[in-house]
Amino acid sequence: MFHAMMNSLFGCGHQKTTFPITPKRSYAGPLAVAGSRNGTYVACLDCGKEFAYDWKSMRIGEPMAEPAAPRQAQASFQ
Hints:
Blueprint: H1 2-10, E1 41-43, E2 50-54, E3 59-63
Antiparallel strand pairs: 1-2, 2-3
């Protein structure tokens, strides 16, 4: 509870992250999943934010763009 309160006041420091994750394939065909990741990234275990990861310098990089929300099909009434 104290940790959540401090995050709400000062923001997350991203101290606890996952091991770097690299998706196996980057598929860009017509059936590609919206929001699929390309490249290596880490995720903060406290807030869930994802960051690019540079293997050469072994450092966390810039925050990754939020995946686009999937479109919902709209019913068409005729």
